[in-house]
Amino acid sequence: MDFAEIRKKAVAKWEALQSSKTPVIYLGAATCGRAAGIEAVAEEIRKTSKKLNLNIKLVEVGCIGPCYLEPIIYIQKNGHPSVCYGKITSGKIKKLLEDYLVNNDPRPDLALGTLGDGQLNGIPGLFEHPMLKYQTRLVLRNCGIVDPEQIDHYIARYGYLGIKKALEMSPLEVIDEVKTSSIRGRGGAGFPTWKKWEICHNVQSDDKYLICNADEGDPGAFMNRSLLEGDPHAVLEGLLIGAYAIGANHGYIYIRAEYPLAIKRLEHAISQMKAYNLLGNNILGSDFSFDIKIKKGAGAFVCGEETALIASVMGKRGMPMPRPPFPAISGVWGKPTIINNVETLGTLATIIRRGGEWFSGFGSESSKGTKTFSLVGKVKQTGLIEVPLGTSLKTIIFDIGGGIAGDKKFKAVQTGGPSGGCIPAELSSLPVDYESLMSAGSIMGSGGMIVLDEDTCVVDITSYFLSFIQAESCGKCSPCRIGTKVMLDILEKIKSGKGEMADIDKLSSLAETIKNASLCGLGQTAPNSVLSTLRYFRSEYEAHIVDKSCPALVCKDLIKYAISEEKCAGCGVCRKQCPAGAITGKKKKVHIINESLCVKCGICYQVCPSKYGAVEKTTGFLT
Amino acid sequence: MKNTIKDIIKPYQGEKGSLIPILQAVQEKTGFISEDAVSTIALSLNMSEHEIYGVATFYTQFRYTKPGDHMVKVCLGTACHVRGGEQLLNRTENILNIKPGQTTPDSAFSLERVACMGCCALAPVIVVDDKIYPNVTSPKVEKIISKYSSPDEKE
């Protein structure tokens, strides 16, 4: 079957689903949806539809982004646009199915919006939702819309037209098109993709490797997981295009073992590609042959570094190597190797299909295109977003994220994972692009964006990142191995209230040394969190050192819990929950915390009913 | 035991760089990397046991003692950290009376801290076996664990 035939059938299949006479219920079934309980919801849908004698079709889709609204379902009936509902529980299902499917009332009061063409009962379009309105979805265009296990859905939505077009071009023309697009690597460093490819293309070798780096190790980031779960073929098509451009015949996807669903989706997608001759020998009748293998990462953050990842693919300890030789010249088994990030690859098919110039129309002067971010932390609307580069932090946090949860004060945003830094609230009009973030002391990184509020202590978060880096340092070079440990010790000393002013200078000078002398990117960027917090939040460090107080009331050694005599109603909830047995008090009488027993776990503070709010946290008592 | 390990290794025979996938397969099927497994792998890959331990211990995924019936993982990714992941870990340690990396004396539970499960939008999360519990608070930990504690309530 040639591709035109495959595509015709795929389009017919997709259109049949869109105009299905049988109602279709789409389930947001990515990892976040599953965690929030979509499986129980699906079970309830099956039961209820049986009871109501309804014939329905269930389709699993990926995540459309507003994870805080999970579990999410969409109901499509009689060719109408599908109606999206969030925070669906098993309890709500029965009534909803009855109302919409039996009585024809789509319940606009419960609906988040409609998806697809046309209007329905005055329900606004889903993309009018505040979280989606400001987004431009190029990479995530299919996530939450297609069934990721159906290659035909992908093909019907212009899938594999990118590789088809690429195969009609010469590899150099493909590289040129990518150059026109100005896309830079989405994994962190932001190196121009075309440049890497050109170097590798120009090396003569019988074997070349292209690796998709899906070892998304940054804690607080899940863009790659979501894309692989929601639209695996977009990444696989990008892998084909890249391989054709550089002349690679072997492909690897190096993916975290912690992402079992993404692995399953990829395995399934690869077998479907083979059936359509999109993988293997003479792809789509051309001279281009390519195979893809999945390698599961075994849990080492440093393997995000190219040379370490290559060592790991070869079954060795994932330790970085000095460069040169660059992997583009000598990588896996000494052969030319290119490593591209999931999101970079996921963007390529669209770039080739619609042209580099079209893509470079999005974004800012220096940073073209769009970028996905995992918007998490203390923000109201958490989830996965995609915006044109150059969008301001303010737009992302306040318009898309809906502002700070609990209407607390916005303090900072952490970007770039453990290699990045904290950008303070004062800089919230900063455009998010590679240069601006760098000049503010952070990095773009792979796209983790963790919003911090007034209850987050910057000394604590910095020591969190340092402890992460220190544990993940491979130990090869001493600046990183010893330097990060010494920095962590100093931060813990400050957190415990034993810091001295000289420690701040020590931190700064250590940071400079580690940055300049470390072998690989992990060590070179390790001090960023320290440097950026010292730059913007020096007074908070000083409060820990001089006043022995933690203004955010986080650092255990500097805070204490007490129960207010006026406010305590003696309900006893805190006493029952206290794991240390530190709270005493009779029913309906004021309770007391025994400080010598208190482990400062904060449970009493959490469980005290908000109508009393009797448990109080204080700091600064040591001076 | 030796036979099972040999069966697990078989599909990888002759494949370059197969040590890590073999270790992963052994752990998936037997729960951990035993001394016996290492010596069998060493023989069939023609490597020393030292080399195998060298590679295996570099990666956090591998365990060398038999895990409990249920694996409790507390996520301490950044999003979970800022939303109280550390408190959840302390609470879990208290309830199970073990530290991360340990197994309860009755072999019912093992405890691990993990760097990120990629469920950051629902932070903080706890994972028991393959089930992810979102938006967990300290008081909820006990309820979650108790679901797995008594045999007739097991999920």
At the third CATH level, what is the topology name of the largest domain in chain B? Glutaredoxin
**CATH architecture classification of the largest domain in chain A:** 3-Layer(aba) Sandwich
Strand order of the largest sheet of chain A: 2-1-3-4-5
Shape of chain B: elongated
**What do the pLDDT scores of chain B average to?**
92
Oligomeric form of this entry? heterodimer
The name of the CATH superfamily of the largest domain in chain A reads NADH-ubiquinone oxidoreductase 51kDa subunit
Low-confidence stretches of chain B: none
Name of the CATH first level of the largest domain in chain B: Alpha Beta
CATH domain class name of the largest domain in chain A: Alpha Beta
| Topology pattern of chain B, helix = H, strand = E | HHHHEHHEEEH
By DSSP (H or I, 4+ residues per run), the number of helices of chain B equals: 7
How far the N terminus sits from the C terminus of chain A, by CA atoms, comes to 80 Å
General form of chain A: globular
Spatial separation of the terminal alpha carbons of chain B: 29 Å
| Helix content range of chain B | 40-55%
Q: Please state the CA-atom Rg of chain A, rounded to the nearest Å.
A: 27 Å
3D architecture notes:
The complex is a heterodimer of chains A (623) and B (155). Helices cover 40% and strands 15% of the residues of chain A. With 623 residues, chain A is of the alpha/beta class. Chain A folds into five domains: 17-129, 3-Layer(aba) Sandwich (Glutaredoxin), CATH 3.40.30; 151-359, NADH-ubiquinone oxidoreductase 51kDa subunit (Rossmann fold); 370-453, Ubiquitin-like (UB roll) (Roll), CATH 3.10.20; 458-547, NADH-ubiquinone oxidoreductase 51kDa subunit, iron-sulphur binding domain (de novo design (two linked rop proteins)), CATH 1.20.1440.230; 556-619, Alpha-Beta Plaits (2-Layer Sandwich). In chain A, helix 8 (171-181) packs across helix 11. The longest helix of chain A is centred in the C-terminal third of the chain and has 20 residues, at 528-547. Chain B is α+β, with helices and mostly antiparallel strands and 155 residues long. Chain B has two domains: 2-56, no CATH class; 70-153, Glutaredoxin, CATH 3.40.30.10. Chain B has seven helices and four strands, in the order ααααβααβββα. A four-stranded mixed sheet of chain B has the order 2-1-3-4, with helices on one face. In chain B, helix 1 (2-9) packs across helix 3 and helix 6 (85-96) packs across helix 7. The chains are: A alpha/beta (623), B alpha+beta (155).
